[in-house]
Amino acid sequence: MPASAPSPSSARHVTALPPHVWFAGRLLEVLTGRRPITSLAGRMRPEAYDRLWDLAGARADWRYVSRGHLPRLLGPPRVSPVLDGTAVEVSAVVLLTPHVARALAFRLERASREAPATASAPGREGPVRAGTGAGWRCAAVEAH
């Protein structure tokens, strides 16, 4: 019997990740050199984007240590909503290798419809793109 293409109903159902999980994964990819920093430009407020550039230089060891390994989040990120519902503060433990763990922390805020914030990287200005969740921007970031 010849093989046939899977029907649309049997295809894997793909769900969008929550914004904090999506962002934690992208941030880890940036800090380990697997994705360019500019890939997060339109998803961060200018101060946080500047801080990410600083962290990328200061955490250059993350690229070296994780070479040959697949860095990953150790469990789901911990989320602390801000009382008024306009932001979440997120912390995550990441494994650079099976024996080397580090910490990430960031704040995601709902973007105002009147004044969308974008970072100033060339060619990356504009509206929120798919993946971050409609209207979410990173306002602060740390990595240790």
How would you describe the overall organization of this protein?
With 144 residues, the chain is α+β, with helices and mostly antiparallel strands. It is built from 3 helices and 5 strands. 23% of the residues lie in helices and 25% in strands. Strands 1, 2, 3, 4 and 5 form a 5-stranded antiparallel beta sheet that branches. The relative contact order is 0.23. Residues 114-132 have low confidence and may be disordered.
User: If helices are DSSP runs of H or I spanning 4 or more residues, what is the number of helices?
Assistant: 3
Mean pLDDT: 81
Annotation, overall tally of beta strands: 5
Oligomer: single chain
Quote the beta fraction.
25-35%
What's the Cα radius of gyration?
A: 17 Å
- The proportion of residues forming helix, as a percent range, comes to 10-25%
Largest sheet: 5 strands, antiparallel
Low-confidence stretches: 114-132
Features:
23% helix, 144 residues, globular, alpha+beta, 3 helices
Produce the secondary structure layout.
Layout: H1 19-31, H2 46-58, H3 60-66, E1 72-73, E2 78-81, E3 87-97, E4 100-110, E5 136-143
Antiparallel strand pairs: 1-3, 2-3, 3-4, 4-5
Structure at a glance:
This protein has three helices and five strands, in the order H-H-H-E-E-E-E-E. It is of the alpha+beta class and 144 residues long. It is globular.
